[in-house]
Amino acid sequence: MPRHPAHDKLKACPIFRDFDDAELAALLELAEPTVHAPGQCIVKQGEAGNSMYLIADGTAEITMHTDSESAITLSRIGPGDFFGELAVVDHEPRSADVTVLTECTVLKITMSLMRMFAVESPSAAFKLAIAVLEVVGRRLRAQNRRYSDSLAIVSLLAAGGTVMESSPMARVAV
Predict the structure, then answer these.
(1) What fold characterizes domain 7-173?
(2) Nearest Cα residue to 30 out of 118, 104, 89
(3) Model pLDDT for residues 120-168, shown as the tens digit of each residue
(4) With the C-alpha atoms ordered 47, 66, 165, 169, is the resulting torsion angle positive or negative?
(5) Which of 12, 19, 78, 114 is 20 to 30 A from 70, comparing alpha carbons?
(6) Reduced to 3 states, what is the DSSP secondary structure of residue 7?
């Protein structure tokens, strides 16, 4: 049986590093990769969501709207990165837009797909869940560091200190 066209691209993604070929093939039978054109918005801040997405190829930008007229770029993502996982877990509205920068091949993973995958290939579904949790944990730790740095800067500025602009992290200085 021939391999799915997206198989090799996905196999190169870190999230699938522990998958064997049969496990990845089982996932690809359930979740068909789709191609998105530059400028296309894959998810929109505020909309309901029940799926996460994994980029197999291409790049996208994550932006958050702070008010009706401005947006902040949070990240640029590419092959092996995923987004939308929070909506799968907490069923809350999307927290940001994800817009395609260069043509993207994306794998959409819904909660119902994860349940089917867990029945058909429990070991692979567990590997996928653990890989996602590892990344979410790293993201949370990085966000905690940024938040702590921000609090230190605010505290220093409130005390009359200054921030060294030349520092890559804008570390506080007295």
Answers:
(1) Jelly Rolls (2.60.120)
(2) 118
(3) 989 988 988 888 888 777 877 877 887 787 777 887 787 777 766 545 4
(4) negative
(5) 78
(6) helix
